[in-house]
């Protein structure tokens, strides 16, 4: 009913893992540069006529708007990835993201161009969202489908590492530029530099991603002539419930990431408490490094324990427990406490992110896997991080109590934990089926 494992040689597997990590790091550098700059200056540069509070809310909302277009990117890239292959989609999404980011760096401000400036900003953010919606699925599948069966979690954590590393790179570049230029010069022109640097990284990522081989799973699907004609239709007809559950497993993690390293804590500490911007950015940079380490740990543990579910459970329980201490320590207004708070928060975030690529790849059948993992990831991002900073800002402003934000984060983690417990464990399931009956094939593999 099922095939023998389809993998690449160890050397090629490692090369693919490195390529997916580098490319994803560049993509998410672009994405996070926007999120953090939106928290710092976009309210003043593009939405100032609305007033301080409304401008900040709308600035955060532009982060969320891009998430609404992730499903469209997931649908398009998923269809093409299931029909034409994983590698070509990796290159295309990287080019789209890099172009959008570079163009943001040369946009006129509201003062220079009026209402056209925020409109162009939103359009380019939408393009970023479209690209992000298709990028992750391809990177995750290339890493996992090339990997040895017993190391899928570890190899699959490579593209996952690209997210915290992208955040680390983005926050580090922002910390350097804000410190180098000072608040006035950064607001005047310094904010553009991190966006323009994307051009250099785009060239590097393009060369690396073009050098890797196509997924062995997709090659075998071609040989079997068993590719789906309409992957999205087949996905929704047979596996819609799995798409929803997989999305929910990611929602809590995504909310946690965007609330902490994705801009909200930075905005809260600098706007509400008036703390030094560079100091808080340094804490975010440190937390991003911790996130990278715990992401690798999460992937490794999921192989070691022969269970993705167990790692998720530990991670989400830790997230629920730390939701309140996260802001209690920030409210002390001490840099060291913010660094400790965010670093501890990243332990739970990494554990629930490291196993995700292998976890998603194992629960979807090969014929519709790119569509399934991409759409689940995109929907999970909408349910989780899309408007998390906006919701948190509204909760904090309307209640005057930061604890309301902690409750929101704990509830999101609890929902994701419930979804993880519903989905059956599929560690080690063969990544390609000889039968169209995926349910039977998966059952046999278990």
TrEMBL record:
It is a multi-pass membrane protein. It is found in: Cell membrane. InterPro entries: MFS, MFS_dom, MFS_trans_sf. It comes from the Bacteria. Keywords: Cell membrane, Membrane, Symport, Transmembrane, Transmembrane helix, Transport. GO terms for cellular component: plasma membrane. PROSITE patterns: MFS (PS50850). GO terms for molecular function: symporter activity. The chain crosses the membrane at residues 16-35, 55-77, 89-110, 116-144, 165-183, 189-208, 239-259, 279-299, 311-328, 334-354, 375-395, 401-423. Pfam families: MFS_1 (PF07690). Residues 16-428 form the Major facilitator superfamily (MFS) profile domain. May be a proton symporter involved in the uptake of osmolytes such as proline and glycine betaine. Belongs to the major facilitator superfamily. Metabolite:H+ Symporter (MHS) family (TC 2.A.1.6) family. This is Putative proline/betaine transporter. The lineage of its organism: Bacteria, Bacillati, Actinomycetota, Actinomycetes, Micrococcales.
